[in-house]
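Same chain as my last thread, 259 residues:
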Amino acid sequence: MCARIVQITQVKPSKTAEKAQKPLDFSKYTCKYMYMATITLYVRDGDTKLVEEAKAKLGDSLSYLFMDCLRDRLEVLPLDPDNEQPSEVEASAKRLSLSRQERLILANQYQILGLLDAGDADDFAQMREIVQRGYAIHYSELDEWFYLEMEASRSREILDILNMFRALMNAKGRGLSVSEKLHFAGLDANEESPEYGYVKFLVETMRRFTEVDLEVLNSHWPLMPRYRAMLTAWRKGGEKYDLTQAGINSIAAARAQAS
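reply #2:
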């Protein structure tokens, strides 16, 4: 099911945050999603108690309260007269279209899941009611944890990057000179979340490239531009999987130029 909040930290808001509209002010907390980026939100000191009270009375996690707030705001915002585009909620509802038969299947599945998972029974009951009653504007809640498809070319790029770093480590094992700067340094979980998630999937789920240390996978800094420069040099080399010192030096030069 959905992600759970793992940490709540009260912070002093900036002047900009104090001017933000009240419905969008929330307590700073960190949400961890499966292969998803970290999200940080802020609230005024005095509103922390209000958030906790809403959580206690409504019985939802802070992540659900925040998403409901966003949906409510988007649904009432007027369209921009110069660019009359539907809200993200409406656009998502239009993307997910369910036939009567599909709604029946989903309703039954949510009922079964509610019986199997008592901890999330209320969530499944809500989803069942959405599809049973045909509330199309809320269909986005059914697939909000789904990612957009990752193009095969982007996946291939990540595979090639990991193979390049493996080739560099193999070369080091053969006694060639490989700088510590030529080790895989992770990816930014925020700015490079699709690539970050795919690497984590390869290592954690598929058990490939297990030399990658997941504990330090989040670089907190975008590194794909640097990796792409190194990858170009690696692909141009004659012996990609049996690197020579000249090939290693070419990759190192590409990295230095991209830094």
